[in-house]
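FORM 12-B: Structure-to-Sequence Request
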């Protein structure tokens, strides 16, 4: 319970790493996948998860991810 409170009060950077994104989207809490990075790969390939590449590393703009979640939520209504 304390960890959950820490996550909700955490200050997130503007560009998230994949590990931060996994935590930000709360993937461990909702997925039974053995590898959470596979969940992110699926979201990128099939759901259009926004990202940019810097030095060959994917980074995820926090605001774009929030907007993406809102669009995905609205499209499922």
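FORM 12-B RESPONSE
SEQUENCE OUT:
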């Amino acid at each position: 319970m304390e960890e959950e409170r820490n996550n909700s009060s955490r200050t997130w950077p503007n560009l998230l790493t994949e590990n931060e994104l996994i935590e930000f989207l709360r993937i461990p809490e909702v997925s039974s996948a053995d590898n959470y990075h596979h969940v992110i790969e699926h979201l990128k390939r099939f759901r259009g998860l926004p990202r940019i590449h810097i030095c060959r590393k994917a980074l995820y703009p926090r605001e774009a991810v929030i907007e993406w979640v809102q669009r995905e939520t609205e499209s499922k209504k």
